[in-house]
C-alpha cells in the first residue's frame, strides 16, 4: 500500500500528492458551500436577490481559487515566478481597487446593521432627503429638492447618520411672541386648545406651552409639540398658522420690534423751548 502511495506519476508527483490535492479541494468546496449557505440565510431579507447572489458567487469561487493555488506546489508546479508577477499585480490592483473594496465591505456592514432603510428620511454628511436605494457599493438619496445623490458606502458608514423617522414620534418647537399688554395666560390656553384639537398632535408625550423669556419687544412663549415622524412636517406647518390666526381673533397680536428712547434733561429742555418759541 505504501509503495502505491509513493508511486510517481510524473516528475516528483506521487499518488499521495494527488490524494492530498483532491482532499484539500473537497474540503475547500464544502467550506465554501457552508459559508455561502449561512450568508444566504442571514442576508436574504436584507439584500436584493441579484446583489446577494453576486456576492455569494465571489466568496464561493474566491475560496476555491485560494485552495487551488495552495495545492499547486503539490502538483509539481513552480509558483516562484507566478508569485512575483502576482505580487506586483496584486499591489497595483490593491491601490486601484482600495476604494471599491472599502465601499463593498462598508455596504455589507450597512446591509447587516440596517441603520437606514429604503424610504427613511435621513441626513448623511449634510445630504438630507429620502433613501431611495442601498446598494453594495453606494447609497442613493433623493433630496427634498428632487435631486438624486449617490454617496459611497464607505462615506455613509463612517459618517454621522441622522434618521428622522427611526423613532415613531418627533418633536418640533415654536417661539411665539406676544405684546406685553396681552394676557399671556389666555394665549397659552388658546394655544393648548388648538393643539388638543389637531388629530396628529400627540398627547403622549404631552405638549408643553410656557413663557420662556421676556424679550426686548415681546413676551416669548415656547410651544413644544410631538407628532408622528411621518406627519410631523405637515402638522408643524398647519399648527403654526392656526395659532397665529386664532391669537389674532382673540385680540392677541405678535408685536413689531420696538424701542423706547429716553432723552437727557438738557436735550428735552431745549426741544421744549424751541416748541414754545414756535407757538409764540
TrEMBL record:
Boundaries of every Mechanosensitive ion channel MscS domain copy: 100-165
Keyword Disulfide bond appears in the UniProt entry: no
Top-level taxon in the UniProt lineage: Archaea
Pfam family, one: MS_channel_1st
Main location: membrane
Record key words, sorted: Cell membrane, Membrane, Transmembrane, Transmembrane helix
Subcellular location: Cell membrane
GO molecular function, one term: mechanosensitive monoatomic ion channel activity
Domain Mechanosensitive ion channel MscS C-terminal: 173-254
This protein's record includes keyword S-adenosyl-L-methionine: no
Annotated transmembrane regions: 15-35, 56-76, 82-111
GO CC annotations, alphabetized: plasma membrane
Domain Mechanosensitive ion channel transmembrane helices 2/3 positions: 57-98
Family, as annotated: Belongs to the MscS (TC 1.A.23) family.
Protein name: Putative MscS family protein
Native species: Archaeoglobus fulgidus
Organism classification: Archaea, Methanobacteriati, Methanobacteriota, Archaeoglobi, Archaeoglobales
Amino acid at each position: 500500500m505504501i509503495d502505491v502511495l509513493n508511486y510517481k506519476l510524473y516528475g516528483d508527483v506521487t499518488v499521495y500528492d494527488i490524494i492530498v490535492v483532491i482532499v484539500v479541494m473537497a474540503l475547500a468546496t464544502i467550506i465554501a458551500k457552508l459559508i455561502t449557505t449561512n450568508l444566504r440565510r442571514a442576508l436574504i431579507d436584507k439584500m436584493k436577490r441579484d446583489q446577494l447572489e453576486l456576492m455569494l458567487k465571489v466568496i464561493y469561487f474566491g475560496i476555491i481559487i485560494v485552495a487551488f493555488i495552495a495545492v499547486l506546489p503539490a502538483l509539481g508546479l513552480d509558483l516562484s515566478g507566478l508569485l512575483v508577477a502576482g505580487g506586483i499585480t496584486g499591489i497595483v490592483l490593491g491601490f486601484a481597487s482600495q476604494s471599491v473594496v472599502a465601499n463593498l465591505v462598508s455596504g455589507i456592514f450597512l446591509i447587516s446593521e440596517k441603520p437606514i432603510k429604503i424610504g427613511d428620511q435621513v441626513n448623511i454628511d449634510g445630504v438630507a432627503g429620502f433613501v431611495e436605494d442601498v446598494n453594495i457599493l453606494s447609497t442613493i438619496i433623493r433630496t427634498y429638492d428632487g435631486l438624486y445623490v449617490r454617496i459611497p458606502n464607505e462615506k455613509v458608514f463612517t459618517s454621522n447618520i441622522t434618521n428622522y423617522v427611526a423613532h415613531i414620534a418627533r418633536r418640533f418647537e415654536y417661539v411665539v411672541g406676544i405684546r406685553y399688554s396681552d394676557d399671556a395666560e389666555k394665549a397659552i390656553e388658546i394655544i393648548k386648545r388648538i393643539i388638543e384639537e389637531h388629530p396628529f398632535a400627540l398627547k403622549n408625550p404631552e405638549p408643553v406651552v410656557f413663557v420662556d423669556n421676556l424679550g426686548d419687544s415681546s413676551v416669548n412663549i415656547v410651544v413644544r409639540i410631538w407628532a408622528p415622524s411621518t406627519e410631523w412636517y405637515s402638522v408643524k406647518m398647519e399648527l403654526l398658522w392656526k395659532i397665529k390666526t386664532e391669537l389674532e381673533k382673540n385680540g392677541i397680536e405678535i408685536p413689531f420690534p420696538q424701542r423706547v428712547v429716553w432723552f437727557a434733561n438738557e436735550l428735552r429742555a431745549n426741544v421744549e423751548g424751541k416748541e414754545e418759541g414756535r407757538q409764540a
